[in-house]
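Worked problem 6 (solution included).
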Amino acid sequence: MKSAVTPLSLGTDRISSLLVRYAIPSIVAMTSSSLYNIIDSIFIGHGVGALAISGLALTMPLMNLASAFGAMVGIGASAIISIRLGQGNKLSAEQTLGNVVLLNLLIGTLFTVASLMFLDPILYFFGASDQTIGYARDFMRVILSGTIITHMYLGLNEVLRASGYPRKAMLIMLTAVAVNCTLNPLFIFVFGWGIRGSAFATVIAQAVALSVSLTHFSSRESFLHFQRSIFRLRRRIVGGILSIGLAPFLLHMCASVVVIFVNKALKVHGGDLYIGAYGIINRVALLFVMIVAGLNQGMQPIVGYNYGARKYDRVIRTLQMTIFCAVAVTTTGFLLGHFAPRPVAMLFVGGDGADAAGLIDAAAYGLRIVLLLFPIVGFQIVTSNFFQYIGKPKKAILLSLTRQLLFLVPLLILLPPHLGVKGVWIAMPIADSIATLLAAVLLFFQIRKLRRDPLHERTI
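Solution. The predicted structure is:
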């Protein structure tokens, strides 16, 4: 257990040191995860064409839906494991690990079969046209065939980090990105596999990373490891995973719904190239969101352990530091979108034709508007995850629903008929501002409740 961070240190070490120790590997790992989408888009845009970018964008709702099930299991389990370790219950933590494996196998199989059976109708519903569905279909057939690999890889990586191995979790994800970066140009430019080559590169890279995680948990030297007795679904553990994991599940589900509404509105008021432009914008924004997600992952074991140990002063201090860092990250995204939108858009598009020029113009215009209030998004994301990490799934679910579904979808219905494509872009910063206000109110009352708890141990 040489590379592990002793879980007990989460309740005693300096919070700033713990956050750096856990957050930096998580940031690198989550940024690496975001780079999957960016790398795929760049190679597809330069190696296949502008319409292929639009085809790739059409797959986002289905990929978000797949991620929703993976996040529900992985994040829900990691939160439970951190809390159980804070309570000194290692047996329950290991049983949770076994349930992660079984749930990912079950859910991944069902999702793969159902999606492949109805793939074309799903893609047309998401906004595909006769010009773009071929690209989307070729990409998703390969990606869906590797759903179990993806779910297992991401789920075990969450458990790895929560059980005291944040550095190893980071290195595993970096391994996947390195393999993906190597195989993408090989499959697209050398083998001539087109958009399918990018999908094959993604699945193979995740399979390589998964093999490393399986090796880790198969070793008895690991803090948590596989044992025959843990591979049995337990109603209490499954219920806990699904209840806490419901918040990130709904967040990804809402993201799928939002992308469907955005794609349909853009198809009506702009066309296929505007769908591709949103694909670029979404990937740029996602890069910064994933950095914040990395901060959240670094916060999760610290908050979970200290909440379980009733050291609420440490919980609040960790939250404050994470919010500060998250707002700094999303502010950087705002500055990039405001001052350099065209250079950013040009990274994703190759060629000098009319389609390439139109895609660059649409993406640059959208970036300025969509990222207009991006700084406050960091606060909203951290707050939503905080409630999840302290075992308050109802509040986490509410905050997950607000921006994506309760506020953004109605705006996407109301504004585009009057403002066209600009209405689609404007809807996003408006929803950000309303959701952030709600998050601030709920957080205020939760912190006040923690400070008034008579049982908590006052210690920094």
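Discussion: The radius of gyration is 21 Å.
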